[in-house]
Structure formats: structure tokens, C-alpha cells
Design a protein that fits this description.
Distance between the termini of chain A: 30 Å
Number of helices of chain A: 19
CATH architecture of the largest domain in chain A: 3-Layer(aba) Sandwich
Largest sheet of chain B: 6 strands, parallel
Number of domains of chain A: 2
CATH topology of the largest domain in chain B: Rossmann fold
Radius of gyration of chain A: 25 Å
Number of helices of chain B: 18
Shape of chain B: elongated
Helix content of chain A: 40-55%
Strand order of the largest sheet of chain A: 3-2-1-4-5-6
Strand content of chain A: 15-25%
Order of helices and strands of chain B: EHEHEHEHHEHHHEHHEEHHHHEHHEEEHH
Number of strands of chain A: 12
Shape of chain A: elongated
Number of domains of chain B: 2
Distance between the termini of chain B: 34 Å
CATH superfamily of the largest domain in chain A: Crotonobetainyl-coa:carnitine coa-transferase, domain 1
Largest interface: A-B, 159 and 160 residues
Helix content of chain B: 25-40%
Oligomer: heterodimer
Strand order of the largest sheet of chain B: 3-2-1-4-5-6
Chain lengths: ~400, ~400
């Protein structure tokens, strides 16, 4: 049985896309039982579509994206536009510790499943609403996904090259929001454990992105400076960039912080004369002349393998690492040695690769226990065994498109 | 008094720069007591990084340091000196959590590894945050933030699209990736602390920055493994969906339309143009084949309108569309204002300045800025004197020896 730190905690979620599902997926890695309430009436788009590859799936149980974000969970199908379905959802909440939803603000209270209602059913409930802009304020009902809240939160504007348009961010920005949700649910669980009290949490995805640029806001307040795009450049370190290596679109990152590292780089490149060059003798000088330096370094790296460059620089004490693509990550010897990728058996897709939990606990390991659920896979277990509905009742509810 | 979610949780932070300090800041902001250990005289490296008012370096005025260390207590300590080591052990004896980011093996070499510390404090939770974890072939590799970003795949899997593949993959702007790592770490720390509250038991958590960052791109990270798709930083896959970053009259907007009704909303926003009636626009599948042409048509329209106009009118039609915000735009945003995202920081040296708060609103245990980031060694007397019981004479002697 599961012995993660959250063993015994039950989470009922009314979420879709990436930001909601991954938050509760993390709780599932940590041992919580997560029940996903969904419906074929309006399918979670992660079951239909991959934002990262543009691929559309033909059925609801064929998405590697959905699998990767909903591991360990159970799925029940309820058509919440039907009052009977709402009643069943309430029964589920009665035996849950945590509820999470990420519908458009205002929708879930209209369905009759808002915090005020559910708190009366389960007094110490922890209830998190995740939305693009938050539950309050003039833009609360604005719709959004990762690309919009990345733009609203400020990260699009500061990423890319100075002379390029801002950067677009796809689904993975959701995972910043999701990880933040997981953290605050855990904090609320600790508070509940100590005081017996639950609470409501309103989380705004655009704010989860904005807080990642706290220092840039302070620059604006201190100096009226509005941070822009500057590629890989740093305020202090130079050289600080990626350099072309052997192969198609292969690059190695090199960052130099100290004079010792700079001298080591010169020696490794076989260019000791650069150490004597006054333009580069201080970090200020290197910063000022980084364009020239980048060309010199590129000349040295371009016919070399990116792991080989990394190795010789590391031996000399210089910070360097390959810039890995999705292929590079999968084949990286260090990640392979650490067993970061897992193959999960999925009843429809067959074997599907997923990324394991990002932490190693000595006592309560975070685990992938099973594939993501098929749509409605656990209706029988949850509605029948847990909530006590009979076979006939369930058949009737299916006919009425309540269980749907 | 307003209750704090993590009141009573005790943390010792022995970390530098962004990731570890951000992890413990998130906890301190929720009421945990964080004792931050910095090296004597120099302090955390972030004290020497900007932004500074007027760009004049000052160890108490770094915006990065102030942001990352709010609500903490600050100690200076030379852990390598014998008396410093003794004090470190005393601090760890009394804490729930030790968060550290030293290179693998460094604390063991000082006889301050997990096994040793656990013998002093069996309930200790210790997390080590290192670039590559404490095992695997690259575990001892040196890495600055730039290297960690690129070795985690973010150069290929995050910012898109690259307009010119002759320029290197780019990192996310600012220190964003350093913050990401702290956010992933804090989930593990709170989960382990929840388990400690339940069982009294501590544990060791190992986390590699590379994997923490990968976890944020877990969907994109498996595309090669599962479908042999190497996600192009040129955005080839994503270009198969109409939408993305588009120039407008006074900046940029972004639009994303995973649902059919959202596409219809965009068409309506543009005023039902003739091109939208063509066969190549009639469903998501054919639109994905004509995405390039469709985007040109959309841009003809966006170029004639302002970002504010497109944002308001688009959202009124429930189209997921947003302006690309700068730090200044966010500060002036009605939505961020209505949610009191910026609070006032009172600082003894800096004075009063707006300060970003958090992405979540707890109904019972709100986020609070209780005290500004500590000045270097600000709490030495309080903690070493009153807390650990050193006399004034002893403190003076230790100070003379350079222990703090």
C-alpha cells in the first residue's frame, strides 16, 4: 500500500487542462488518493489535444499528455449540469479532505458546489480555486491558459532576444501555477492538522508567474527601469551564453563568474594569450566585451561535441553544460543513471514514458503507482463501493446522463 | 492576531542566491521561523547582485536579496571554524528543517552530513538542493543558473518560437528558473513536515535542480521518448495551431484557442472577416494545416488595434486573449491593484517601497509581510545570546575570532 507522506488524505478535484490536474497529481505522487470528477459532456482538453506537439487525439484515453499529468488518480464521470450529479459530488466531498477546482470563476458556485455550500457538508474542508486572474477584481472572469497568464504575469516580455518579439509560453507555464497550488494545499493541511480548521484559498495563475520576477518589480520601483529581453545575458557574469557545437542545433552553455574561471577557460581553449588581453582581465571588461568573447568561444566549440566541451571545462573548474532538447534529455547519461524517466503500462496506449517525481525522500518516497485513469474508470468503485449506489441505481443514472 | 498557516515550524537555511532562499521565503511568508545563515562580512551573494537604487551597490539594498529573504531572521556564521560548527549543530538540534545547497559532500567533510545531524536531532528534515543531485556521473559538475536551465531542457522546451536558429537557445528571463527550483523544493519540505507533524519523524530529501526544472516541462520532456518528436525551439509543432504572440499597434498580444467556441469568438472579435468563411478555417484540423496563413490574417487586424482594446473586447467575447505585460504594466493593472498584489515594505535603510506579495489568498491564514529581509547578522545577538545562551563576553570573543 501507499505510504507517502499524504497517505490517508483524499482529494476530490473538478479540474481540467494542466494547472489543476498537475497540482493534484503531485499530491498523488505524495500518497494522497485523488478522485478526478470529469464528464464526456465537456472533456478535459488534455484528453483531446497536445499543446506541446499540436497533436489531436481520436479518443479520450489516448493522450500521453493527460497520462503524464494525471498519474495515480481515479476518474469518475458526472454531468454537473444535472442536479442529481451535484448531489453525488457532494457525497464525495463529505468524505474528502481537499477539493480543488479550476473552472472559470463563478461557474462552480452556480453549479451548487461553491465553498460556502461544501463547507456546510464538511466543516474542515480545504478548498482551492485556481483561476487565471483570481476570484476577485474586475478581470476575474477573464479566460486564459498558459500563454495568456505568462503574458499577463510578465515572463513573456522578458524572455527572448532584445530584437525579437516576446516569447510565447505553452502549457508548461501551467505547471508553475500547479506546483504553487500543491504547496498551498500542503500548508493548509498542516494548519488543519494543528487547529482542526479548514479554509478557502483563491489562487491566481497570472500571479504565480509574476512572483517569479520579484526582483524585476523592485528594479522598476527603485530605478523606474522596465526590464526587457536580453537573451542569455547576465548582469554580472560573462561569458554567459550558449555556444554552437557539433551536430544539428546542438549548443553548450558556459558561464564564467570569476577571474580564475576565466583563466581556466582560456587555458582549456588553448588561448593563454587572452589572459593577457586587458579587455578581458576584469569581470567588468568581460561583460563589456562579451560579444567579442562569444565569437572567440564559438570558434573553439563549433567542431566539438557538447559533452566533450562540458567535460574538459568541468575538469578545469568552469561551469558548463549541454543545452538539451527533448531528445537530449531522454538520452542524457546522468538522467539515465538517476532513473528519471519511467515507463507506465497504459491499457489503451501501451507503454508510455513519463517523468518521475522530482524529489527523493528517504522515508516516504514519492511514487508513480499506476497509469492515469480511463474516462470514468472508477465509477463502479467510487459510486458503488464507496458511496453505496446499487447497480440498478447506477444504470439508471447513466441512462439519465447523470453519470456521464 | 491573524493566524499563520505555518506558525511554529522552525527552519534553518544554509543557502545562497535564489533557489534555496526562495524555498524558505515561501515558508517564512506563511509564518515559519526561518534562521538564515550567511557567511560573515560578505553575506549571501545576492546582496551583491542588483537591482540597487541608483545602481549603487549596497549590501542592505539589493532588490533580489530583499525579495528573497522577507520575513526571515539573519545570522552570520563561519561554519568552517570549530566554534562555528558547534553553533551550527546547536541550531540544527532545535530546528524542524534544514535547507541547504552546498555542493555534494561538503557538509559531510565538515562532519555535518545528514547522518551526523540526525544523531543530534532524530526528527530533523533535511533537504539538499544541488545542481545534479548527490549521485550520478555529473554530480560534482559546477553549474550556475544558466547551466542548470539549459541542461534541464528549458532552452528548447520553453520559450518559443526562435526566429533564427543560428542564434542560441535562450533561457527564461530574469531569475525565473532559480525561483522554479525553490518552488519545487518547498512542496517536498511541506509534505515532509506534514508527515513529521503526524508521526514525529524526520527524513532526508535529495533534490537536483536539473530534475526540479524538468518537472516543470514534464509533458514536453517525454515527446521524444513516446513519439520520437523532437520539439523544435523554432515552434514548428506549435505553429500548427493558429494564435500565439502577435504585434499590435502599441506592443504585443497573445491569443490561444483550444476550444472551437474560442475560435468563433476570435472571428467575431475581428468582425466576421471573409477569410474566416473559407474551407481552410472550418474546423480545428484544417485550421492547423493553414495556421501560418490564418495568423497572417489575424495579424493584419491586430496591427490596427491597441493591446488594451484587443484585450477588453476579446475577453468580453470569452476569447482567451491578453496583452504582453511589462513590470510597469503589471504595477498599473487594475486587476493586480484590486487584489492588493503589491504591499508596502518598510525597510530601515531603504525606506518605503512597494513589494510583490503572493499568488494566493487564504481565508484564514493570509500571506503577511511581517518584517523586511534581515540586515547582515541582524539577529546574531537575539539567536546566539537569548536563544542559544551565549553570554555577551562569549559573543564578543566569537566575533573577534571571526565566527560571525
Amino acid at each position: 500500500m501507499n505510504n507517502g507522506p499524504l497517505a490517508g488524505i483524499r482529494v476530490t478535484e473538478f479540474t481540467s487542462a494542466w494547472a489543476g490536474p498537475y497540482a493534484t497529481c503531485l499530491l498523488g505522487f505524495l500518497g494522497a488518493e485523488v478522485i478526478k470528477v470529469e464528464s464526456r459532456r465537456r472533456l478535459d482538453h488534455a484528453r483531446n489535444l497536445s499543446f506541446s506537439t499540436g497533436r489531436r487525439f481520436s479518443g479520450p484515453n489516448e493522450s500521453s499528455v493527460f497520462n503524464n499529468l494525471n498519474l495515480n488518480k481515479k476518474s469518475v464521470t458526472l454531468n454537473l449540469s444535472k442536479p442529481k450529479a451535484v448531489e453525488i459530488a457532494k457525497q464525495l466531498v463529505r468524505v474528502s479532505d481537499v477539493v480543488m477546482e479550476n473552472m472559470r470563476p463563478g461557474v462552480i458556485p452556480r453549479l451548487g458546489l461553491g465553498y460556502e455550500v461544501l463547507r456546510d457538508i464538511k466543516s474542515d474542508l480545504i478548498y482551492l480555486s485556481s483561476s487565471s486572474c483570481g476570484q476577485t477584481g474586475p478581470e476575474r472572469e477573464y479566460v486564459g491558459y498558459a500563454p495568456t497568464f505568462a503574458a499577463l504575469g510578465g515572463v513573456s516580455h522578458i524572455t527572448g532576444y532584445e530584437d525579437w518579439p516576446p516569447s510565447n509560453f505553452m502549457g508548461s507555464m501551467d505547471l508553475r501555477s500547479a506546483t504553487t497550488s500543491t504547496f498551498v494545499i500542503l500548508a493548509a493541511l498542516i494548519y488543519r492538522q494543528r487547529t482542526g480548521e479548514g479554509q478557502y484559498i483563491d489562487l491566481a495563475s497570472q500571479e504565480t508567474i509574476a512572483v517569479l520576477a520579484g526582483d524585476l518589480f523592485l528594479d522598476y520601483f527603485m530605478n523606474h527601469r522596465v526590464a526587457g529581453r536580453k537573451g542569455n545575458k547576465d548582469e554580472v557574469l560573462a561569458p554567459h551564453n550558449c555556444y554552437r557545437c557539433q551536430g544539428e542545433d546542438n549548443w553548450v552553455s558556459i558561464a564564467v563568474a570569476t577571474d580564475e574561471e576565466w583563466q581556466a577557460l582560456c587555458r582549456v581553449m588553448g588561448k593563454p594569450e587572452l589572459m593577457e588581453d586587458a579587455r578581458f582581465s576584469s569581470s567588468k571588461g568581460r561583460l563589456k566585451n562579451q560579444g567579442v568573447l562569444d565569437e572567440i568561444i564559438n570558434q573553439w566549440t563549433m567542431d566539438r561535441d557538447y559533452y566533450e566541451v562540458t567535460k574538459v571545462l568541468q575538469e578545469a573548474g568552469v561551469g558548463s553544460a549541454p543545452s538539451l532538447s527533448s531528445e537530449g534529455l531522454f538520452q542524457d547519461p546522468h538522467l539515465q543513471a538517476r532513473g528519471v524517466y519511467f515507463q507506465v503500462d497504459h491499457p489503451v496506449m501501451g507503454k508510455d514514458w513519463v517523468v518521475g517525481p522530482p524529489w527523493r525522500f528517504s522515508e516516504t518516497p514519492a511514487r508513480i503507482q499506476r497509469h492515469s485513469p480511463l474516462l470514468g474508470e472508477h465509477n463502479e468503485e467510487i459510486f458503488g463501493q464507496m458511496l453505496g449506489l446499487s447497480g440498478e441505481e447506477m444504470a439508471e443514472l447513466e441512462k439519465e446522463e447523470v453519470i456521464y | 492576531m491573524t493566524p499563520r498557516a505555518l506558525e511554529g515550524m522552525k527552519i534553518v537555511e544554509y543557502c545562497n542566491m535564489v533557489s534555496g532562499p526562495y524555498c524558505s521565503k515561501l515558508l517564512a511568508d506563511m509564518g515559519a521561523e526561518v534562521l538564515k545563515i550567511e557567511p560573515p562580512h560578505t553575506g549571501d551573494d545576492s546582496r551583491r547582485r542588483g537591482p540597487f537604487p541608483g545602481d549603487i551597490p549596497h549590501q542592505e539594498k539589493s532588490g533580489l536579496f530583499l525579495y528573497l529573504n522577507s520575513n526571515k531572521k539573519g545570522l552570520t556564521l563561519d561554519v568552517k571554524k570549530p566554534e562555528g560548527k558547534k553553533i551550527f549543530k546547536k541550531l540544527v538540534e532545535k530546528t524542524d528543517v534544514l535547507i541547504e545547497d552546498r555542493p555534494p559532500g561538503e557538509l559531510e567533510a565538515l562532519d555535518l552530513g545528514y547522518e551526523k545531524l540526525k544523531s543530534l536531532n532524530p526528527g530533523l528534515i533535511m533537504i539538499s538542493i544541488t545542481p545534479y543531485g548527490d549521485r550520478g556521473p555529473f554530480k560534482d559538475y559546477k553549474a550556475y543558473q544558466l547551466n542548470t536551465v539549459h541542461v534541464s531542457g528549458q532552452g528548447y522546451l520553453l520559450p518559443i518560437p526562435a526566429l533564427d536558429m543560428d542564434r542560441p537557445p535562450v533561457k527564461v528571463g530574469g531569475h525565473s528558473s532559480g525561483f522554479d527550483v525553490g518552488l519545487v523544493a518547498v512542496v517536498a519540505v511541506t509534505a515532509a513536515f506534514y508527515w513529521k507533524v503526524l508521526t514525529g519523524k524526520g527524513q532526508y530529501i535529495e533534490m537536483s535542480k536539473q530534475e526540479a526544472l524538468m518537472s516543470m516541462q514534464r509533458v514536453e520532456s517525454v515527446t521524444f521518448a513516446n513519439d520520437q518528436v523532437v520539439i523544435s525551439r523554432g515552434g514548428d509543432q506549435v505553429r500548427r495551431m493558429p494564435g500565439g504572440i502577435m504585434p499590435c499597434k502599441d506592443g504585443y498580444i497573445v491569443v490561444v484557442m483550444p476550444e472551437e467556441h474560442q475560435w468563433q469568438a476570435l472571428v467575431k472579435l475581428i468582425g466576421d472577416p471573409e477569410w474566416a468563411k473559407e474551407d481552410g478555417c472550418q474546423n480545428a484540423l484544417v485550421r492547423s494545416e493553414n495556421a501560418g496563413q490564418i495568423n497572417e490574417w489575424i495579424m493584419e487586424w491586430t496591427m490596427q488595434h491597441t493591446k488594451e482594446e484587443i484585450f477588453r473586447r476579446g475577453q468580453a467575447l470569452s476569447c482567451p486573449i491578453a496583452p504582453v505585460n511589462t513590470a510597469e504594466d503589471i504595477y498599473h493593472s487594475e486587476q493586480f491593484k484590486a487584489r492588493n498584489f503589491f504591499v508596502d515594505l518598510e525597510h530601515p535603510v531603504l525606506g518605503k517601497i512597494p513589494f510583490p506579495s503572493s499568488a494566493y489568498r487564504f481565508s484564514k491564514t493570509p500571506w503577511q509581510l511581517v518584517q523586511a529581509a534581515p540586515m547582515l547578522g541582524e539577529h546574531n545577538e537575539e539567536i546566539y545570546g537569548r536563544h542559544l545562551g551565549y553570554s555577551n563576553e562569549e559573543l564578543a570573543a566569537l566575533k573577534n575570532e571571526g565566527v560571525f
